[in-house]
Write a structure and sequence with these properties.
The protein has eight helices and 14 strands. With 274 residues, the protein is of the alpha+beta class.
Length: 274
C-alpha cells in the first residue's frame, strides 16, 4: 500500500480528506480522478479507511472548503484575451456522482470581476499564446490557514484547452457569438473580427430521470420556453456527472437566473434542490 500526498484538493466536498485510487492493470496504469472519490470527515473515518483498505494505490489530499469557479477563453499570439467567461459551480462533480444529485452551474458577467483580474495574470504567466484556455480556482467558503480568507480565490488547475461539457455553448449564448469562429479567425488571422459584448447570464441545469420534479418537461417548455436555449438528453456514459437531461437557460440578471435554476430543480413536494 502506497500513500501519495498532494498539496491541494481536487474537488470541493464535505469532509476533511479526499482520496481516489489508481487502477494497476497489465499494460495500463491510469487514474480515475473523481468518480471513486470519497470524503473522510473525521478521525474515526480515517482510521476505518486504513483498517479496511485494499492493496490498491491511493492518493490522499487535504480538504479545501470552497467551490470551483473557472476562467475560460481564447487568446491571440500576444496573449491578449479575445473572449472570456467565468463559470461558478453550484455543487461539486464528486457530489453529483456519489450522491446522485442534480447538476447546476452558471456564469457571471466577467468584465471587472476579481477572477478576470487574476485569470488575466495567469494567462500572462503561462504559455497561453494562440489557444483556448480553461483555468479553475477555489473560491474559499471559509478562512483557510496558509491559503487565504473566505472569498479569496486559490489556484487549482491550468488547462490549455477549451472548457468541457456544454461550456462553449454557454459562452455562445452569453455573448450571442460563436467561439469556434473566433478561434478559427485567431488561428488564421490572429485577431477577432466580432465586436463582443456579454449580454446574458446562462445556467446549465442537469436533471435526473428518477427524481420527481414539480414541473415536467412540457410544463417547463410552456412556462420558460423563452429562456431555454438548449434542451438535450445526456449520453448514459456521462450522465453520472452531468445529469440525464440538460437544459441551458439564459436571462439578463442574476436574480432571475437563480429563480430559473430553482424552478427547474424544484421537487414535487415543493422543496428546493439543495
Amino acid at each position: 500500500m502506497a500513500i501519495v500526498w498532494s498539496p491541494h484538493t481536487i474537488a470541493p466536498v464535505s469532509g476533511a480528506l479526499y482520496y481516489t485510487f489508481e487502477y494497476n492493470l497489465i499494460g495500463y496504469s491510469g487514474f480515475l480522478p473523481l468518480y471513486p472519490g470519497r470524503a473522510l470527515n473525521n478521525q474515526a473515518e480515517l482510521e476505518y479507511f486504513f483498517a479496511t483498505k485494499d492493496e490498491r494505490i491511493y492518493i490522499m489530499e487535504e480538504y479545501v472548503n470552497g467551490h470551483v469557479e473557472t476562467f475560460d477563453g481564447i487568446t491571440d499570439s500576444n496573449k491578449n484575451v479575445l473572449i472570456a467567461n467565468s463559470t461558478i459551480m453550484l455543487n461539486s462533480i464528486m457530489d453529483n456522482v456519489n450522491e446522485h444529485c442534480d447538476t447546476a452551474f452558471c456564469n457571471r458577467f466577467v468584465a471587472g470581476s476579481d477572477i478576470e483580474e487574476i485569470g488575466t495574470k495567469v494567462v500572462k504567466a503561462f504559455d497561453t499564446r494562440s489557444r483556448f484556455f480553461h483555468f479553475e480556482f477555489f473560491r474559499l467558503d471559509s478562512d483557510k490557514e496558509g491559503l487565504g480568507k473566505k472569498g479569496d480565490l486559490v489556484g487549482l488547475e491550468v488547462n490549455m484547452r477549451a472548457p468541457g461539457a456544454y461550456m462553449p455553448d454557454m459562452i455562445n449564448f452569453s455573448y450571442e457569438s460563436d467561439v469556434y469562429t473566433i478561434w478559427a479567425d485567431m488561428v488564421i488571422y490572429d485577431k477577432c473580427f466580432i465586436e463582443l459584448k456579454q449580454k446574458y447570464l446562462v445556467a446549465y441545469i442537469g436533471r435526473r430521470n428518477d427524481i420527481g420534479y414539480m414541473f415536467d418537461h412540457d410544463q417547463l417548455i410552456s412556462q420558460f420556453g423563452g429562456n431555454i436555449m438548449l434542451d438535450v438528453d445526456v449520453p448514459e456514459v456521462l450522465s453520472a456527472a452531468m445529469g440525464n437531461h440538460v437544459y441551458m437557460v439564459r436571462t439578463e440578471n442574476q436574480e432571475h437566473l437563480d429563480y430559473l435554476i430553482n424552478e427547474f430543480l424544484k421537487r414535487c413536494d415543493g422543496s428546493n434542490w439543495r
